[in-house]
Design a protein that fits this description.
Distance between the termini: 54 Å
Largest sheet: none
Helix content: 55-70%
CATH topology of the largest domain: Cytochrome Bc1 Complex, Chain D, domain 2
Radius of gyration: 19 Å
Strand content: under 5%
CATH superfamily of the largest domain: Cytochrome c-like domain
Oligomer: single chain
Number of domains: 2
Length: about 200
């Protein structure tokens, strides 16, 4: 009798969990079709290099960025307005929605530049004391729940973010990025961005 009770509880938990997941997916889809798609596309593929691809990005990372835009910790007039009415549950639902999407890597436009970027990403620059990007973001550039997926991201977007870290205009994320970006030359920023976009 006890096993039957445990089994019934497990089935109920799975059913409730599945219902919540479906509700979150529906909520996210409604939010995306309401406004997110304008810049980031229905599936997070983003039609402009100015806006990041969200497809395949970690759910927790997306939720954190949305919360930071809402609180003003990360500056963006457009995103502050977009995130103002989002709840923590909305943010996580959007994160899970986009995490489940896929986007192909970008075609590398400059192979020589990407070659320099590959070296910096994997080995850093011992002459300037720059650590390898891969030491935090992984050799594949997929990051972790708290660190962004960089693989396949638009080169222009990545380079812009590195410049913002360099100037300390973006300060909502890991403070380590300030010291790293401070050691990156303009060539290294462009090279790393070009390389990682093709991963």
């Amino acid at each position: 009798m006890r096993w039957k009770s445990v089994l019934t509880t497990a089935v109920v938990a799975l059913t409730v969990g599945s219902a919540w997941a479906q509700a979150d997916a529906e909520r996210a889809k409604k939010l995306v079709s309401g406004s997110c798609f304008l810049c980031h596309g229905e599936d997070g593929e983003s039609a402009s290099e100015v806006f990041p691809k969200l497809a395949g990005q970690h759910a927790e990372y997306i939720a954190k960025q949305l919360e930071n835009f809402k609180s003003g910790k990360r500056k963006s007039t457009a995103m502050a307005d977009m995130s103002a009415r989002l709840t923590a549950d909305d943010m996580l639902a959007l994160g899970k929605y986009f995490e489940g999407k896929t986007s192909p890597p970008e075609a590398v436009k400059d192979q020589d530049l990407a070659g320099v970027g590959r070296y910096i990403f994997n080995h850093g620059n011992k002459f300037s004391g720059l650590p390898a990007c891969a030491s935090c973001h992984g050799k594949d550039g997929l990051g972790t729940a708290s660190l962004p997926r960089l693989a396949g991201q638009y080169a222009t977007y990545v380079e812009t973010q590195l410049k913002l870290f360099n100037k300390r205009e973006r300060n909502n994320d890991n403070a380590v990025m300030h010291s790293i970006a401070a050691n990156l030359s303009a060539l290294e920023m462009a090279a790393v961005a070009e390389y990682i976009s093709g991963k």
